[in-house]
Amino acid sequence: MFGTFFNVGMIIAGSIIGSIFKKGIKDEYHSILMQAMGLVAMGLGINAIVQHLPSSEYPVLFIVSLAIGGIIGQKLDLETRFNALVNKYSKGNLAEGLSTAILLFCIGSLSILGPVEAALKGDYTYLLANGMLDGITSIVLASTFGIGIAVAAIVLFCWQGSIYLIALLMENSLSNALLNEITIVGGILILASGLSILGIKKCNTLNLLPSLLIPPLVFLIMHVLHL
Question: What angle do CA 100, 156, 115 make, to 5 degrees?
Answer without folding.
Answer: 125
